[in-house]
Design goal:
The complex is a heterodimer of chains A (345) and B (550). Chain A has 345 residues and is an all-alpha fold. In chain A, 71% of the residues lie in helices and 2% in strands. In chain A, the strands form 2 sheets. A two-stranded antiparallel sheet of chain A has the order 1-2. A two-stranded antiparallel sheet of chain A has the order 3-4. With 550 residues, chain B is an alpha+beta fold. In chain B, 29% of the residues lie in helices and 21% in strands. Classes of the chains: A mainly alpha (345), B alpha+beta (550).
Chain lengths: 345, 550
């Protein structure tokens, strides 16, 4: 078991390394570096000025040197002040030292966000926290509602309830978030005025029903349809099993057949689906957070990408790899424990 | 040589002459007010010369202290003021860092951190007098050394993206890339004398521009980071600065503001992103009291919320410019054909919802002091086609590039629609704002917005002179350069207008820009907010704003 976990962690590290090299390569492409230089100088700066900025701040060093610096195996160099010849800190706003140091991922330094002008950790951790809150509320509303719909629909296949609920779930899950989000905003924020169409105040002034319902609803509604369909399929299957028929013939009420016998068996499949929702939520938040301007992980990722904020973008990729692989690891281990027939190798 | 003191009661004779013309309607009043104040007239005197009372400011009750003003505005990454490329960036710092000169909503220039200035007859020598009661938030007095320190920093062309260099004119030495030796000298603790090698009437107006905020004399040595070391002279002190989220200021606690009592307990700038709907919901839910700008499409929505609207006529504009270094735009016939195929008034309606005044393809606005009205050029599709046929470019497919910002995109679409209407093939390309600026001077055919500048010659000098860094059209015309240099040195309005007429004509005839309109800018604020208004250059000085809680 320990070996299995270690091997998985090793794979995770390797994936991170590969992915960051790719990301690093992409953000080091010429147009992207230029974009960075423009955002750090002035949007109408001349070509020579941009080049000089890139040169001065070390972006013209060899690709592997820069990657090594980010990793922490090569020393990060401070800038040299042209007029005095003295070494000065590269990005003052991140308190970067004015001496050459090893300061990369291996040393626990995620670098400096050039867009937000703070150390990456200082931006990314609150953002992950904010996304955590969003995901929590999405899960709390999505899972019970979806299971309920799925069970109600699946216990009597083909009934009017089943058809209605199935139609609703198919509709919600077929509507992408960027469509349902707009529709909800128009209805609940613009027409009715019940809810706030922007979650911008949620990160600064705290989450409340008024500013947080729309993003949670938009994400949850999409997931509800999907999970409900899975639950229904599983429920339908269970309801045709021999032991259910036996239970009915034994004279048990339909209610107690469903609750005591069918439900537990029917919940195994949706459980897997729900576990799979975690990585999905992390990508799903990109749209919803940008749309409602909720400053979580998704929003940070978009901002980092559109401003070519190198260190922040790399840190975001690390987080994504970690979340996806770690949840997979957890569910693999979980399966092995839940089902004795599966052995981890 | 006669010097004319600002805010005084003495002005050169040509200003008196102009007053007569302004009274009789021969000259625009705004134009007169701007020029009169540059040459020393006080607001009272300038209006007096026109035979008008000074417009009363809407203040019916005495200001009450208290309350925090929350303003919806982009919170972009802070920069050194001289690198600021967005008015918003300067606004987030402007509550603590201040300018030397203030361009008033009445289109005159008033001393701000300066107590006053004197200018000689042909605008080559400026004597700048500092206010004596200004202190920095670290306790230092504001003295001549501070001003010299800032002038030097503004003239430093070795700093990438320092846009103040161009504004400093001949005070900046092109060869050394620094301030010209002996260009600015200390006369006494509160007086600095600036000597230019060429006349420059835009020197004082340039000091009112948004990047021209005065920083403390340790600013650049401390890493040029306003957030780390916020030392300023203004009415507020920085509390926190979160890019993309909000900026918090509190009323100044160390030392008094030279401008008197500050009524607000604090100011917050809150970022709601680029979607204007978010701003509407912010107002609806009472999360903000005022906004930086209301786009024309949303005027009605915010009016309906019971908010007060404020508007300003500006010389903010957008140009669909061709770059003459690219084929087929090297051919003047093609450029003129594009102009003739577009009706600027229609573009104003479609691109800007009619919120502005049509422009005439020469980048000098009616509110500019040196504006001369040229004969109207009507849309003429037949002539446009004839020109294209003559140039052999009738079948060329033009690619019109713009950024995705709302009014840029809409204006581009409107121009493209007009061109297609005239039978010219156009492809539209909309780039995200974050990549559009990578090559903004290089595109063969694209839209660029130009911000407000009080004098017409200012933009012309930045954008259309040979070899200027911001010359996006690649336009180079020695005759134009010569006339512009001449205009930059002429005081007498009538003589200057003669030159300006030629300049406008040259630019219009060259066909390098389709300049459809001049924008009006708007913003909104809650009824309880007093003294908040849209400034023609969208500058927010909140030291005198107050809130009357009902």
């Amino acid at each position: 078991m320990l070996q299995f976990i270690l091997r998985r962690l090793g794979i995770m590290a390797l994936t991170m390394l590969c992915l960051t090299v790719v990301v690093f390569f992409l953000i080091s492409l010429e147009p992207n570096l230029k974009k960075l230089a423009i955002s750090q100088t002035e949007s109408r700066a001349t070509q020579e000025q941009l080049e000089s900025w890139l040169q001065r701040n070390g972006y013209r060093q060899n690709f592997f040197v820069r990657y090594g610096q980010w990793l922490g195996v090569v020393k990060k160099q401070p800038n040299i002040d042209a007029s005095t010849g003295k070494a000065v800190s590269r990005f003052v706003f991140c308190d970067e030292p004015d001496v050459a140091t090893y300061s990369g991922i291996l040393q626990g330094d995620f670098g400096c966000s050039t867009k937000f002008r703070v150390p990456v950790a200082q931006k990314l951790l609150p953002a992950l926290g904010a996304t955590g809150i969003l995901m929590f509320w999405v899960m709390v509303t999505m899972v019970p509602v979806a299971l309920l719909i799925g069970i109600l629909a699946g216990m009597r296949e083909g009934s009017r309830t089943d058809r209605t609920l199935s139609a609703v779930s198919i509709m919600t899950t077929a509507t992408p978030e960027y469509v349902s989000g707009v529709i909800f905003s128009v209805i609940f924020a613009s027409w009715l005025g019940w809810l706030n169409g922007s979650a911008a105040s949620a990160t600064t002034q705290g989450v409340n029903f008024y500013n947080f319902t729309l993003p949670v609803m938009t994400m949850a509604v999409y997931g509800i349809g999907y999970i409900a369909r899975m639950t229904r399929a599983s429920m339908v299957e269970v309801m045709t099993q021999q032991y259910i028929r036996t239970a009915r013939l034994k004279g048990l009420s339909f209610r107690s057949v469903v609750i005591k016998h069918a439900l537990r068996n029917a919940l195994i499949a949706p459980f897997t689906v729900i576990m799979l929702q975690f990585p999905w939520l992390l990508t799903g938040v990109v749209i919803v957070e940008t749309m409602f301007r909720y400053q979580g992980f998704g929003y940070t990722l978009v901002e980092a990408a559109s401003n070519n904020d190198i260190d922040l973008l790399l840190a975001c990729s690390l987080v994504s790899v970690f979340v996806v692989l770690f949840t997979q690891l957890l569910s693999d281990i979980g399966y092995a424990y839940l089902n004795p027939r599966i052995r981890v190798q | 040589m006669a010097f004319y003191k600002n805010n005084g009661d003495r002005v050169p004779d040509h200003i008196l002459e102009m007053a007569g013309k302004a009274r009789s309607g021969e000259m625009d009043r705004r134009e007169f007010l701007a020029l009169a104040s540059v040459f020393g007239a006080s607001v009272a005197m300038a209006y007096g010369l026109l035979g008008l009372p000074v417009p009363a400011k809407a203040q019916d009750t005495t200001p009450k202290p208290g309350g925090v003003l929350r303003v919806q505005m982009f919170v972009k990454a802070p920069k050194q003021p001289r690198l600021a490329d967005w008015t918003e960036i300067a606004n987030t710092m402007r509550q603590q860092l201040e300018a030397l000169v203030y361009y008033t909503p009445e289109y005159t220039f008033e001393p701000f951190l300066l107590e006053g200035w004197e200018v000689n007859d042909n605008a080559t020598e400026y004597i700048m007098k500092l206010r004596k009661n200004v202190t920095w938030t670290n306790g230092d007095p504001f003295v001549a050394e501070d001003l010299l320190y800032n002038l030097e920093a503004w003239c430093d062309a070795t700093v990438e993206g320092n846009s103040m260099v161009a504004r400093m004119g001949t005070l900046a030495d092109k060869s050394t890339k620094k301030m010209r030796e002996g260009g600015a000298t200390k006369v006494d603790d509160h007086t600095v004398k600036v000597v230019l090698t060429e006349p420059d009437i835009s020197f004082i107006p340039n000091l009112a521009d948004y990047p021209a905020l005065i920083v403390h004399k340790t600013f650049y040595e401390n890493g040029a980071d306003f957030v780390k070391t916020p030392i300023g002279t203004g009415p507020f002190e920085l509390v926190s600065f979160d890019v993309g989220q909000r900026v918090v200021y509190k009323r100044r606690e160390t030392g008094a503001w030279w401008g008197g009592d500050v009524m607000l307990d604090g100011v917050e700038f809150i970022d709601y992103g680029t979607d204007p709907n978010a701003a509407v919901s912010a107002f609806e839910s009472g999360e903000v009291d005022a906004n930086y700008e209301t786009t024309p499409d949303y005027l009605q929505a915010l009016d309906d919320l019971g908010l007060k609207k404020s508007e300003a006529v500006t010389s903010i504009t957008i140009v669909a410019r061709t770059n003459v270094n690219n084929k087929p735009y090297d051919d003047q016939k093609v450029r003129n054909a594009l102009q003739l195929a577009v009706d600027n008034a229609v573009v104003l309606q479609l691109g800007q919802n009619g919120a502005g005044v049509p422009a005439e393809n020469h980048h000098v606005a009616p509110i500019h002091p040196e504006y001369v009205e040229l004969p109207k050029v009507e849309r003429d599709v037949e002539k446009a086609k004839a020109l294209l046929t003559e140039a052999g470019q009738l079948d060329f497919e033009h690619e019109l590039i713009s950024s995705d910002e709302d009014w840029h995109k809409n204006t581009g679409d409107a121009i493209a629609a007009q061109l297609r209407d005239a039978g010219i093939k156009v492809k539209r390309t909309v780039l995200p704002g974050s990549t559009f600026w990578n090559d903004w001077t290089k595109y063969p055919y694209s839209l660029t917005n130009w911000t407000m500048r009080p004098l017409g010659v200012q933009v012309l000098a930045l954008a259309y002179r040979t070899g200027e860094a911001w010359n996006e059209t690649g336009y180079s015309n020695p005759e134009f350069d010569k006339k512009l240099a001449e205009a930059l040195s002429i005081n007498d309005p009538e003589k200057r207008k003669v030159v300006m007429k030629d300049i406008e004509k040259i630019l219009q005839d060259s066909g390098i820009i389709i300049q459809p309109f001049w924008r009006k800018v708007y913003n909104h604020h809650a009824e309880k907010v007093q003294g908040y208004f849209q400034h023609p250059m969208q500058q927010l000085n909140l030291g005198k704003v107050w809130i009357s809680e009902s």
